[in-house]
């Protein structure tokens, strides 16, 4: 046993250290408990994630169609689609949207989210008010690298993509209309600061 | 009928830090519970019920954490249950404890909890786990991080009301300054508005110093009736009694995009307004700015505190920006907010947050807040929410005269 160096005895051990009292007390009540070992535990898990009753939304993206759901009672058009209208607790019906709309809210995100590997930064996280829908739809607005183009209220539209993609939500995206500009422009932060 | 009014009889908080790897979650909760029991002067075996407050199994890498923590601090075999409400977890645990006591189910409850939000995982992994509390089918999947969603909300506020980055930078400065007077705080800092505005952008208009901290930490608080406290708490009669007078809670659609009402739209926390109004009715408060003396608000981002000023009725809608900048919520101002330093300065260990807010208010109302004491504080409020306001809890506490 003495032939094995301490660092090799526990392969997951990240380190051992002498902890200071975080409250910096002169009489540390935990003085016998300050030699600390930290382990490096790895856990990778895969999910078998059903898209359930909104699957048709994703299936139709492959056909270049944008599908929402409509409540037969209150006629609210839900986008993202909901199989159940929460206002009436009623089963909705599928309805196709034209894929046009306006920009209702946005931010420029500078940190790459671990939840979406490979998403280049900065990106514009945008709420689209899609024509025909009663709710707002969140997606990335692709301005082809020109962040100064983004304006509240600007015309935007859905574009469909071929794939291959990691998640079917990326079979679509949002792009500004040709020559689009917003009604009540505020501009982006860079412009305000200048 | 006997008086079922609920009192805070003691509390304990650990040092909050980005890295408490000197301790496990069990160790931290034990520290907090031991401190609360000592503060209350209560023998733990007299406690009748417990509520465990934590948000996620993923940080501690332990499911049924409540059972483990409950056993760790020697509370077996009394009843225990977990309460979870995202960022409002601790406040909802207190709401539940209050209901138990008010209903006569028991006379005393200990609420304890914590979270290892610091370095137990990489910060990118922590953000990933926290992003799972957005809608994972429709938001998380397209890069809808919490920084991004909060940024969309404050940008809408800027568009509607002309609110500026400078105005919410004042909140980032204030809370970190307040934290300098709090020995339990993770990161007190002397900053200027320019420091905040020159920190790197995260999700525009938010910059690094507008974002709250991810912390390791734990907290515990003991609640009871006055009769129980007189019998079992050594210190109850030596200190001003602090009554838990009101607790309001309400919900909203988790996805911002489903909140398409013209007002409040994306710029406000509607459920916060509803929760506050409930709490004000229970507490008999007509004008919160005039009647409340000290408050701990949920400053997950600097601008979220600004929006909360409005939704809690501390100022009219659209005037939060001016209010943030004019000093009325500073220490020494009309209504000091986040004297602890809040999530921006004291730190954010989710399961501990609502409890830590309560402890700060309790200390202030007991006139026991040391060099951050607010003069003559009699009524205090805590505010917290899950997600971007999907579940909101507003609790109100009041110092009573000794009888």
Q: What does the model show?
A:
The complex is a heterodimer of chains A (194) and B (403). Chain A contains 3 helices and 12 strands, in the order αββαββββββββββα. By secondary structure, chain A is mainly β. In chain A, the strands form 4 sheets. Chain A has a 5-stranded antiparallel sheet with strand order 10-9-8-11-12, with no helix packed on it. Mean pLDDT of chain A is 90; it is low at 184-194. With 403 residues, chain B is α/β, with parallel strands linked by helices. In chain B, 37% of the residues lie in helices and 17% in strands. Chain B contains 15 helices and 11 strands. Chain B has helices spanning 25-40, 57-60, 65-72, 89-102, 123-131, 146-161, 165-179, 193-197, 226-232, 270-283, 288-291, 302-311, 320-325, 342-345, 350-365; strands spanning 6-13, 50-53, 80-83, 108-116, 201-203, 206-207, 216-224, 242-251, 294-296, 379-385, 391-399. In chain B, a hairpin with a 5-residue loop joins strand 10 and strand 11. In chain B, helix 4 crosses helix 15 and helix 7 (165-179) packs across helix 12 (302-311). The longest helix of chain B has 16 residues, at 25-40. The model of chain B has no long low-confidence stretch (mean pLDDT 96). Classes of the chains: A mainly beta (194), B alpha/beta (403).
Per-chain topology:
The complex is a heterodimer of chains A (194) and B (403).
Chain A: H1 6-9, E1 13-18, E2 35-39, H2 55-61, E3 66-70, E4 77-78, E5 84-85, E6 90-91, E7 93-97, E8 100-109, E9 123-130, E10 137-141, E11 155-160, E12 172-176, H3 189-193
Antiparallel strand pairs in A: 1-2, 3-4, 3-7, 5-6, 8-9, 8-11, 9-10, 11-12
Chain B: E1 6-13, H1 25-40, E2 50-53, H2 57-60, H3 65-72, E3 80-83, H4 89-102, E4 108-116, H5 123-131, H6 146-161, H7 165-179, H8 193-197, E5 201-203, E6 206-207, E7 216-224, H9 226-232, E8 242-251, H10 270-283, H11 288-291, E9 294-296, H12 302-311, H13 320-325, H14 342-345, H15 350-365, E10 379-385, E11 391-399
Helix pairs in contact in B: 4-15, 7-12
């Amino acid at each position: 046993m003495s032939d094995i160096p301490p660092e090799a005895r526990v392969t997951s051990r990240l380190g051992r250290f002498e902890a200071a009292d975080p409250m910096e007390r002169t009489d540390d009540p935990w003085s016998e408990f300050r030699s600390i070992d930290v382990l490096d535990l790895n856990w990778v898990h895969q999910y078998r994630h059903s898209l359930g009753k909104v699957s048709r939304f994703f299936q139709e993206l492959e056909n270049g169609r944008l599908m929402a759901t409509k409540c037969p009672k209150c006629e609210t058009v839900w986008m993202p689609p909901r199989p159940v209208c929460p206002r009436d607790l009623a089963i909705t019906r599928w309805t196709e949207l034209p894929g046009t709309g306006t920009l209702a809210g946005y931010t420029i995100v500078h940190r790459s989210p671990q939840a979406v590997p490979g998403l280049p930064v900065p990106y514009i996280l945008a709420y689209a008010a899609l024509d025909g829908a009663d709710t707002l739809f969140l997606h990335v607005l692709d301005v082809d690298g020109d962040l100064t183009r983004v304006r509240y209220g600007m015309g935007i539209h859905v574009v469909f993509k071929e794939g291959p993609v990691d998640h079917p939500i990326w079979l679509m995206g949002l792009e500004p209309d040709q020559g689009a500009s917003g009604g009540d422009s505020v501009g982006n932060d860079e412009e305000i600061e200048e | 009928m006997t008086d079922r009014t609920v009192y805070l009889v003691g509390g304990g908080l650990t040092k909050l830090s980005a890295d408490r790897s000197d301790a496990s979650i069990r160790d931290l909760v034990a520290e907090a519970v031991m401190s609360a029991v000592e503060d209350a002067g209560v023998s733990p075996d007299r406690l009748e019920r417990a509520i465990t407050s934590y948000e996620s199994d993923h940080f501690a890498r332990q499911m049924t954490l409540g059972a483990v923590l409950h056993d760790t601090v020697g509370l077996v075999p009394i009843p225990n249950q977990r309460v979870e409400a995202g960022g409002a977890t601790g406040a909802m645990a207190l709401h539940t404890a209050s209901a138990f006591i008010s209903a006569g189910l028991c006379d005393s409850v200990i609420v304890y909890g914590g979270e290892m939000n610091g370095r137990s995982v990489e910060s990118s992994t922590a953000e990933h786990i926290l992003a799972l509390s957005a809608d994972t089918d429709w938001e998380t999947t397209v890069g809808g991080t919490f920084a991004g969603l909060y940024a969309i909300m404050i940008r809408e506020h800027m568009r509607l009301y002309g609110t500026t980055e400078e105005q919410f930078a004042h909140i980032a400065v204030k809370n970190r300054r307040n934290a300098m007077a709090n020995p339990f705080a993770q990161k007190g800092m002397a900053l200027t508005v320019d420091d905040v505005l020159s920190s790197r952008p995260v999700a525009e208009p938010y910059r690094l110093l507008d974002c709250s901290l991810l912390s390791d930490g734990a907290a515990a608080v003991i609640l009871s009736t006055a009769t129980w406290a007189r019998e079992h708490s050594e210190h109850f009669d030596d200190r001003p009694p602090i009554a838990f007078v009101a607790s309001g809670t309400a919900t909203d659609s988790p996805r911002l995009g489903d909140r398409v009402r013209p007002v409040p739209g994306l710029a406000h926390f509607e459920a916060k307004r509803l929760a506050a109004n409930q709490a004000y009715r229970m507490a008999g408060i007509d004008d919160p700015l005039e009647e409340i003396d000290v408050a701990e608000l949920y400053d997950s981002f600097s601008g979220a505190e600004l929006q909360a000023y409005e939704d809690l009725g501390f100022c009219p809608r659209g005037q939060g920006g001016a209010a943030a900048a004019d000093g009325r919520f500073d220490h020494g101002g009309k209504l000091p907010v986040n004297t602890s330093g809040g999530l921006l300065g004291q730190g954010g260990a989710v399961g501990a947050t609502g409890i830590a807010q309560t402890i700060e208010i309790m200390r202030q109302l007991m006139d026991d807040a040391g060099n951050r004491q607010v003069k003559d504080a009699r009524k205090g409020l805590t505010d917290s929410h899950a997600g971007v306001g999907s579940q909101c809890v507003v609790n109100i506490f009041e110092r009573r005269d000794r009888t």
